[in-house]
Amino acid sequence: MNVLLLDDEPLELEQLEYLLLSEFPSWKFFKASDASQAHSINLNHEIDLAFLDINLPGKSGLKCY
């Protein structure tokens, strides 16, 4: 399963990845710190699940799709 993690706080990204990886070690994680990075990842990979920060500077995580 390909999972996108989007958050502008680096520590939050690392913590979320750590928690999910401990439960789902076979999942592949893609991390983005802004909506444009998330959009680029989404264009290049088939994302099955996304955890999106909706309170980003500039463009909301919900608008990256």
Question: Overview of this structure, please?
Answer:
With 65 residues, the protein is α/β, with parallel strands linked by helices. It has a single domain (2-64), classed as Response regulator (Rossmann fold). The chain is 37% helix and 22% strand. The protein is built from two helices and three strands; from the N terminus they run E-H-E-H-E. The protein has a three-stranded parallel β-sheet with strand order 2-1-3, sandwiched between helices. Strand 1, helix 1 and strand 2 form a beta-alpha-beta unit. The chain is flat and about 30 Å long. It starts with a strand and ends in a 13-residue tail after the last strand.
Number of domains: 1
Derived structural class: alpha/beta
Unreliable residue stretches: none
Q: How confident is the prediction overall: mean pLDDT? A: 89
- Helix and strand sequence: EHEHE
Helix percentage: 25-40%
**What is the CATH homology-level superfamily?**
Response regulator
**What is the CATH top level name?**
Alpha Beta
Span between termini? 18 Å
Number of strands: 3
Strand content: 15-25%
- Cα-based radius of gyration, to the nearest Å: 11 Å
Q: How would the global form be characterised?
A: flat
CATH topology: Rossmann fold
CATH 2nd-level architecture = 3-Layer(aba) Sandwich
- Major sheet: 3 strands, parallel
Number of helical runs? 2
